[in-house]
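#lab-general

N.A. 3:47 PM
ok so I finally got the sequence cleaned up, no stray characters, all 413 residues accounted for. can someone with queue access submit it? mine expired

B.Y. 3:52 PM
send it over

N.A. 3:53 PM
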Amino acid sequence: MKTQCTKIAVVASCGAETEMFRHAGFFSVSKDAVYHRVLIPGFAVPEDDALAVSEIRRLAEERKLDLIISEWLGHTRAMQDLIHLAQEREIPAVFVRTTEVKKVRRVVVATGGGPNLYEQMWLARETASDLGVPVEILHWTPDFNDIPIDGPNDNGPLEKMCVHLLNMQVDTIHCSGTDFAGSVACSLRPDDLLIVGAPSPLRLVADFAGSLPDQLAKRIPNPLILLSSPPLGHISLRRLLWGKLIKPRLRSRSKNQALESMVDNLIRHNQLPPTSQKDILTRALEREQISSTAVDCETAFPHVKLPGFFGVAGTLGIFPDGIDFGHTDGHLTRFVFLLVTPDGFCDEYLAFLSKISKRMLNSSVREALLRCKTAAEAVEILEPHEDFPYENSALVKNYSDLKSVPQQESLAV
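B.Y. 4:20 PM
back already:
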């Protein structure tokens, strides 16, 4: 299970090694992390970049890489080949373009709620924290009319959920026009650092050249980070919430009592050592003291980062009567997903979080979960089989509603 970055390939020319290793440091807090240095001879000819890609391919065949950190390659074909390799091997990859900007004063994320939203926002948070600067989300619309006013609290529901769970404070920049790259270029300041997602795998079948990240790289002089995350196809909620890790029809008097019962459920399923019960509960409560993990849609995502832990462990508690989980508006919480992960970057955790969030935005999913009586029924609602066994059951009034998830506009991801 690839969840903690312990084997990191760093691709850099001689002048950019320090910067690339600094970015690699964001992703792993493990003292045992192994860094594989891949030197780019130069940017004079395409063969230089191709040699770096070949070396990464060799490393990926010899060992299981957890992350690729690369300088922005000078040739689009090499960028395409390395992103394609990362997607094929299911390895997160980050490409960094440095510039002559002396000090970055703002991190801007170009996203419209696409599949890599959580990973992009996590990267933006860590980068901004390291630089001591704010984060803003940039939204582009292909129309000149009816553009919202820039400011906080005007993001879509998925983005609001993501920002809250990552404990971030962000504003929004709106831009519009017929040319995405040109509109973004007009919206950026000279000292902005822009974070974008990689083109979709379907787009990479053609060429990286002409893709939105490539257009941006040619149009803006700003420092730029591109994130490529593995496809979400391998992320299965059935693999996370198996057996009786889903507990329907629970009752609890308090948040503390609810979390205690859920930690106990993880231990009963041998997901966590019994000796860690007190420590995990303490960590969960300390995270809640920073800010409640209760979000809209009657859902909460308490999270425990456990040093030395590998993988992702999770359990879902369904509380039909609701509990006070500290939602900012005083709303009760009925669905509590407790997730335990390693320290540092955990791509599977962010992918699970994204997938669950999208499902819970659907009111029909939430209504069906409240009616279910068993864990098997609940997991079928969260991640239906193609042949849905409850199609004619009163459990689900409208199965077509369950299959549909609110669509989010996607820009560069």
